[in-house]
Amino acid sequence: MPDRPKRVAAIHDLSGFGRCSLSVILPTLSVMGVQVCPVPTAVFSTHTGGLGEVQRRDLSDFTLPCLEHYLQLGLDFECVYSGFLSSQEQIDHCLKFFSSYKDALAVVDPVMGDHGRPYRTISTEMQNRLAELVRVADVITPNLTEAYMLLKIPFQTEGLSRSQAKSLLARLGELGPKYVVITGVPMASGKISNIGYDRQNNSYWCIDCDYVPVSYPGTGDLFASVLTGGFLTGDSLPMAMGRATYFVERCIKTTFSYSSDTRYGVMLEKELGVLTNRQNIKDFSLL
To answer: Is 22 within 8 Å of 14 (Cβ atoms)?
Structure first.
């Protein structure tokens, strides 16, 4: 009997317009040969960044029955991946997902804020509860704002030295995850970098990003998706980081070249094919 594709239970919101969350996770991981089983936590008409009054439906009553149905059917998953959660109840449901699939790769994207501020839906209580997911994760993918929030330290805008970056990664590793990746980190060198930590091997990694003077929604979701797909298809941590960085950069540069409205997200549709070439990895180095 042929091997089936690896399966991911992706617990995240679904935004109908704007290219983010499940709408980018599904095509990205699918192209990488990974089956995505979406478990929506909320449905939005658009993402919440500047597209007017958003229509929203909370789905806190769906996640636990979904898990129970999967368990009843005896379905297996090689990965459970959590992203945006709209209630503390859903955090409890995610903890049950992770404990029910102990052998699955546990990926937590702690969606809490950006640009030094929490999102409107993320209360102090939600921040504290999301740290519980981090403690049971194998991989976490915070942006810099979320990294500071998890550690409960003030956000700083100054570029990080290499020693400061390593200290930040190590402190996050002490919370429990085996792998820590922080995206979009301003470095003292003037570069913007994605940085990572492999706690088991005590190794620190850095990938410098090509600067483009623009910001798009959903790039963190794209990065976490490709990183997850990389792990599931045999990548080491720096290889998965390099693959994710390469793809997100390609999407950003392509979209910028068309002068597309930034609120509409990146044109990933034009770049999905690069994920089929295993050689497309951005150079990485020790931090």
So the answer is: yes
* d(C-alpha 60, C-alpha 111), whole Å: 16
Name the pLDDT band for 1 (thresholds 50, 70, 90): very low
CB hemisphere CA count around 238 (13 angstroms): 14
Higher-confidence residue: 53 or 150?
150
pLDDT at 284: 97
**Length of the chain, in residues:** 287
Q: Virtual CA dihedral for 94, 96, 99, 100, nearest 10 degrees?
A: -110
Neighbours of 176 (CB within 10 A): 19
Which residues is 139 bridged to in the sheet? Answer: 107, 179
Q: Tell me what pLDDT residue 120 has.
A: 86
Which tokens in the block code for residue 43?
Answer: 């449905």
| Cα(75)–Cα(87) distance, integer angstroms | 26
List all residues 6 or more positions away from 30 whose beta carbon is below 8 Å from its beta carbon: 36
pLDDT above 80: residue 2: no
Return the structure tokens found at 144.
């810099």
From 27, 2, 7, 22, select the one nearest 73 (Cα to Cα).
Answer: 7
Cα–Cα distance list, 243 to 207, 230, 232, 237, 247 (Å) = 10, 7, 13, 10, 6
The CA R_g of the chain, rounded to the nearest whole Å, is: 18
In percent, how much of the chain has pLDDT > 90? Answer: 92
